[in-house]
Amino acid sequence: MSRPFGAGERALLLDSKGRRYLVTLTAGAEFHTHAGFVLHDELLGREEGTVVRTGSGARYTAVRPTLSDFVLKMPRGAQVIYPKDLAQILVLADIHDGLSVMEAGVGSGALSMTLLRAGAEVWGFELRSDFAARARANVASFLGPEALERFHVEEHDVYEGIPRADLDRVVLDLPEPWRVVPHAEKALRPGGILLSYLPTINQVSQLRQALDESSFAMAETVEVLVRSWHVDGRSVRPDHRMVAHTGFLTHARLVG
User: Fold this and answer.
1) What is the pLDDT of residues 142-200, one digit of tens each?
2) Into how many domains does the chain fold?
3) Structural domain of 250
4) Under a CB-based contact definition with an 8 Å cutoff, are residues 40 and 26 in contact?
5) What pTM did the predictor assign?
Protein backbone atom coordinates (compact mmCIF):
# COMPACT_ATOMS: atom_id res chain seq x y z
CA MET A 1 0.00 0.00 0.00
CA SER A 2 1.49 3.33 -1.08
CA ARG A 3 2.07 6.05 1.47
CA PRO A 4 2.98 9.44 -0.02
CA PHE A 5 5.00 12.00 1.91
CA GLY A 6 2.95 14.31 4.13
CA ALA A 7 3.61 17.58 5.90
CA GLY A 8 5.55 17.14 9.14
CA GLU A 9 7.21 13.92 7.95
CA ARG A 10 10.94 13.52 7.57
CA ALA A 11 12.49 12.74 4.20
CA LEU A 12 16.04 11.62 3.53
CA LEU A 13 17.46 13.27 0.42
CA LEU A 14 20.34 11.55 -1.38
CA ASP A 15 22.47 13.43 -3.88
CA SER A 16 24.47 11.97 -6.79
CA LYS A 17 27.52 11.44 -4.55
CA GLY A 18 25.59 9.53 -1.89
CA ARG A 19 25.48 12.37 0.63
CA ARG A 20 22.40 12.31 2.84
CA TYR A 21 20.28 15.16 4.17
CA LEU A 22 17.45 14.77 6.68
CA VAL A 23 14.61 17.22 6.03
CA THR A 24 11.31 17.83 7.84
CA LEU A 25 8.76 18.52 5.12
CA THR A 26 6.76 21.73 5.45
CA ALA A 27 4.37 23.22 2.90
CA GLY A 28 5.95 26.24 1.20
CA ALA A 29 9.43 25.57 2.62
CA GLU A 30 12.72 25.14 0.75
CA PHE A 31 15.78 22.94 1.32
CA HIS A 32 18.95 24.83 0.39
CA THR A 33 22.33 23.32 -0.53
CA HIS A 34 25.44 24.47 -2.39
CA ALA A 35 23.75 23.13 -5.55
CA GLY A 36 20.60 25.22 -5.22
CA PHE A 37 17.32 24.56 -3.47
CA VAL A 38 14.51 22.01 -3.50
CA LEU A 39 10.89 22.95 -2.89
CA HIS A 40 9.26 20.83 -0.19
CA ASP A 41 6.01 21.09 -2.17
CA GLU A 42 7.63 18.99 -4.90
CA LEU A 43 7.82 16.09 -2.41
CA LEU A 44 4.54 16.48 -0.53
CA GLY A 45 2.01 13.99 -1.84
CA ARG A 46 4.70 12.08 -3.78
CA GLU A 47 5.96 8.53 -3.23
CA GLU A 48 9.32 7.35 -1.92
CA GLY A 49 11.91 7.20 -4.66
CA THR A 50 10.76 10.51 -6.14
CA VAL A 51 13.58 12.45 -7.80
CA VAL A 52 13.61 16.23 -7.57
CA ARG A 53 16.03 18.75 -9.04
CA THR A 54 17.38 22.10 -8.01
CA GLY A 55 17.42 25.05 -10.40
CA SER A 56 20.99 24.11 -11.37
CA GLY A 57 19.94 20.55 -12.24
CA ALA A 58 21.29 18.72 -9.17
CA ARG A 59 19.34 15.50 -8.49
CA TYR A 60 18.02 14.43 -5.09
CA THR A 61 16.22 11.15 -4.47
CA ALA A 62 13.78 11.14 -1.53
CA VAL A 63 13.10 8.18 0.77
CA ARG A 64 11.93 7.83 4.34
CA PRO A 65 14.81 7.59 6.83
CA THR A 66 15.51 4.28 8.54
CA LEU A 67 16.19 4.17 12.28
CA SER A 68 19.91 4.10 11.48
CA ASP A 69 19.60 7.17 9.24
CA PHE A 70 17.67 9.07 11.88
CA VAL A 71 20.05 8.21 14.73
CA LEU A 72 23.04 9.53 12.79
CA LYS A 73 21.29 12.72 11.64
CA MET A 74 18.91 13.61 14.50
CA PRO A 75 19.38 16.59 16.86
CA ARG A 76 21.59 15.59 19.76
CA GLY A 77 23.62 16.88 22.64
CA ALA A 78 25.29 13.75 23.97
CA GLN A 79 27.20 11.34 21.73
CA VAL A 80 24.83 8.64 20.50
CA ILE A 81 25.34 4.88 20.50
CA TYR A 82 26.08 3.87 16.90
CA PRO A 83 23.63 1.71 14.91
CA LYS A 84 26.04 -1.25 14.83
CA ASP A 85 26.00 -1.35 18.64
CA LEU A 86 22.26 -0.65 18.89
CA ALA A 87 21.56 -3.72 16.77
CA GLN A 88 23.77 -5.93 18.94
CA ILE A 89 22.18 -4.57 22.13
CA LEU A 90 18.77 -5.81 20.95
CA VAL A 91 20.19 -9.33 20.54
CA LEU A 92 22.42 -9.49 23.64
CA ALA A 93 19.71 -8.10 25.93
CA ASP A 94 17.03 -10.14 24.10
CA ILE A 95 14.72 -7.14 23.73
CA HIS A 96 11.22 -7.96 22.50
CA ASP A 97 7.59 -6.95 22.74
CA GLY A 98 6.16 -6.47 26.23
CA LEU A 99 9.38 -6.26 28.23
CA SER A 100 9.86 -3.72 31.02
CA VAL A 101 13.26 -2.10 30.44
CA MET A 102 15.14 0.43 32.54
CA GLU A 103 17.56 2.65 30.62
CA ALA A 104 20.09 5.07 32.12
CA GLY A 105 21.11 7.59 30.85
CA VAL A 106 18.93 8.34 27.90
CA GLY A 107 21.14 11.00 26.29
CA SER A 108 19.62 12.02 22.97
CA GLY A 109 17.28 9.01 22.79
CA ALA A 110 19.00 6.78 20.19
CA LEU A 111 18.89 3.71 22.42
CA SER A 112 15.46 4.65 23.74
CA MET A 113 13.83 4.65 20.31
CA THR A 114 15.59 1.38 19.43
CA LEU A 115 14.18 -0.31 22.56
CA LEU A 116 10.74 1.18 21.99
CA ARG A 117 10.57 0.11 18.36
CA ALA A 118 11.37 -3.45 19.46
CA GLY A 119 8.19 -3.30 21.56
CA ALA A 120 9.56 -2.68 25.06
CA GLU A 121 8.18 -0.33 27.69
CA VAL A 122 11.07 1.90 28.68
CA TRP A 123 11.71 3.60 32.01
CA GLY A 124 14.44 6.12 31.32
CA PHE A 125 16.51 7.88 33.96
CA GLU A 126 18.60 10.92 33.13
CA LEU A 127 20.43 13.54 35.22
CA ARG A 128 20.03 16.42 32.77
CA SER A 129 16.61 17.84 32.02
CA ASP A 130 17.73 19.14 28.60
CA PHE A 131 18.86 15.65 27.56
CA ALA A 132 15.58 14.16 28.80
CA ALA A 133 13.57 16.73 26.81
CA ARG A 134 15.62 16.12 23.66
CA ALA A 135 15.20 12.35 24.00
CA ARG A 136 11.41 12.72 24.26
CA ALA A 137 11.37 15.03 21.23
CA ASN A 138 13.49 12.66 19.13
CA VAL A 139 11.37 9.64 20.09
CA ALA A 140 8.15 11.47 19.20
CA SER A 141 9.67 12.77 15.97
CA PHE A 142 10.69 9.36 14.65
CA LEU A 143 8.20 6.93 16.24
CA GLY A 144 5.25 9.29 16.64
CA PRO A 145 3.76 10.84 19.81
CA GLU A 146 1.98 7.58 20.67
CA ALA A 147 5.39 6.04 21.48
CA LEU A 148 5.67 8.38 24.46
CA GLU A 149 2.96 6.29 26.16
CA ARG A 150 5.63 3.58 26.58
CA PHE A 151 8.52 5.98 27.27
CA HIS A 152 8.66 7.19 30.87
CA VAL A 153 11.57 9.57 31.47
CA GLU A 154 12.49 10.83 34.93
CA GLU A 155 15.34 12.94 36.25
CA HIS A 156 17.02 10.60 38.69
CA ASP A 157 20.52 9.41 39.68
CA VAL A 158 20.52 5.61 39.41
CA TYR A 159 23.81 5.47 41.32
CA GLU A 160 21.60 6.16 44.34
CA GLY A 161 19.10 3.42 43.50
CA ILE A 162 16.54 2.20 40.97
CA PRO A 163 13.00 3.35 41.82
CA ARG A 164 11.42 0.45 39.91
CA ALA A 165 10.89 -3.24 40.63
CA ASP A 166 10.14 -6.36 38.58
CA LEU A 167 12.17 -5.15 35.62
CA ASP A 168 13.03 -7.53 32.79
CA ARG A 169 16.13 -5.65 31.62
CA VAL A 170 18.53 -2.98 32.86
CA VAL A 171 20.46 -1.22 30.09
CA LEU A 172 23.17 1.25 31.09
CA ASP A 173 25.07 3.94 29.20
CA LEU A 174 26.89 5.36 32.23
CA PRO A 175 30.56 5.90 33.10
CA GLU A 176 30.41 3.86 36.36
CA PRO A 177 27.89 1.04 35.86
CA TRP A 178 29.46 -1.08 38.62
CA ARG A 179 27.79 1.28 41.09
CA VAL A 180 24.40 0.23 39.69
CA VAL A 181 24.99 -3.54 39.95
CA PRO A 182 23.69 -3.86 43.57
CA HIS A 183 20.58 -1.84 42.68
CA ALA A 184 19.98 -3.94 39.56
CA GLU A 185 20.09 -7.11 41.67
CA LYS A 186 17.08 -5.82 43.60
CA ALA A 187 15.19 -4.34 40.65
CA LEU A 188 15.46 -7.20 38.13
CA ARG A 189 13.33 -10.30 38.00
CA PRO A 190 15.17 -13.66 38.25
CA GLY A 191 16.72 -14.38 34.87
CA GLY A 192 16.71 -10.71 33.95
CA ILE A 193 19.54 -9.22 31.92
CA LEU A 194 21.86 -6.33 32.68
CA LEU A 195 23.68 -4.79 29.73
CA SER A 196 26.23 -1.99 29.82
CA TYR A 197 27.84 0.10 27.07
CA LEU A 198 31.32 1.40 27.93
CA PRO A 199 34.03 3.12 25.87
CA THR A 200 37.16 1.81 27.65
CA ILE A 201 38.38 -1.62 28.70
CA ASN A 202 39.43 -0.32 32.14
CA GLN A 203 35.80 0.50 32.85
CA VAL A 204 34.80 -2.95 31.60
CA SER A 205 37.31 -4.58 33.94
CA GLN A 206 35.83 -2.79 36.95
CA LEU A 207 32.29 -3.72 35.89
CA ARG A 208 33.21 -7.38 35.39
CA GLN A 209 34.74 -7.51 38.87
CA ALA A 210 31.50 -6.14 40.35
CA LEU A 211 29.47 -8.69 38.38
CA ASP A 212 31.73 -11.53 39.58
CA GLU A 213 31.03 -10.51 43.18
CA SER A 214 27.26 -10.29 42.63
CA SER A 215 24.30 -12.58 41.87
CA PHE A 216 24.85 -12.14 38.14
CA ALA A 217 26.28 -14.92 35.99
CA MET A 218 26.98 -15.75 32.32
CA ALA A 219 28.82 -12.44 31.90
CA GLU A 220 30.30 -11.71 28.47
CA THR A 221 31.94 -8.69 26.86
CA VAL A 222 32.00 -8.09 23.10
CA GLU A 223 33.10 -5.40 20.68
CA VAL A 224 31.40 -4.82 17.32
CA LEU A 225 33.54 -3.87 14.31
CA VAL A 226 31.94 -3.09 10.94
CA ARG A 227 33.86 -2.89 7.66
CA SER A 228 32.14 -1.90 4.44
CA TRP A 229 33.36 -2.87 0.96
CA HIS A 230 33.86 -0.91 -2.23
CA VAL A 231 32.13 -2.80 -5.06
CA ASP A 232 32.22 -1.18 -8.51
CA GLY A 233 32.30 -3.62 -11.42
CA ARG A 234 35.54 -5.58 -11.13
CA SER A 235 36.94 -3.15 -8.59
CA VAL A 236 36.23 -4.99 -5.34
CA ARG A 237 38.13 -4.21 -2.14
CA PRO A 238 37.58 -3.24 1.49
CA ASP A 239 36.81 0.44 1.97
CA HIS A 240 39.73 2.51 3.22
CA ARG A 241 37.75 3.54 6.30
CA MET A 242 35.72 1.41 8.70
CA VAL A 243 33.64 1.91 11.84
CA ALA A 244 35.94 0.19 14.29
CA HIS A 245 35.91 0.67 18.06
CA THR A 246 33.04 2.66 19.51
CA GLY A 247 32.37 0.80 22.74
CA PHE A 248 32.30 -2.48 24.64
CA LEU A 249 29.04 -4.30 25.35
CA THR A 250 28.91 -6.31 28.57
CA HIS A 251 25.87 -8.39 29.51
CA ALA A 252 25.02 -10.77 32.34
CA ARG A 253 21.97 -12.56 33.78
CA LEU A 254 20.58 -12.45 37.32
CA VAL A 255 20.55 -15.98 38.72
CA GLY A 256 20.88 -15.54 42.49
Assistant:
1) 999 999 999 999 999 999 999 999 999 999 999 999 999 999 999 999 999 999 999 99
2) 2
3) 69-254
4) yes
5) 0.88
